[in-house]
Amino acid sequence: MADGNGTQETQDQAPAINAMVQYTKDFSFENPNAPRSLGPQEKAPNIAIQVHVNAQQLAESDFEVNIVLEGSAGEGANTLFKFELDYAGMFRLLNISPNDMHPVVMIECPRLLFPFARQIIADAVRSGGFPPLYIDPIDFAALYRKRLDEVAASAPQLKS
To answer: Less CB within 10 Å around the terminal CB: N or C of the chain?
Structure first.
């Protein structure tokens, strides 16, 4: 209800990101060398992590956004563990300009999902017999800019 100063109307026009639901789409954890891999290690394992962000528009203001986290500790025959998590959420975006929609979907939505995906990985690694793996925070804005640069670099250049 408006209070005479247009407060309700202003609130109705404010940009909003609503997480409607979050869910695990796919998850895999492998501990291929257990129980041998669970003993003391001579040196710290090489940990590799890849991050991918995908999005799909479901309706005019609804988007499904996925973070895919793939990682491993160790290499080759000395692999301690591997994981792959596809964690997603459905977001309703309101009052966001068309120019801002893509960055919001690809930066802000994954930023909201990441802490939950990070905890799933940490819990799985701990349940696999290892100390929990807490993935460092991800700069989704930098990841977005990098992806835009890659797309621009692969696009055919027009000669004038």
So the answer is: C
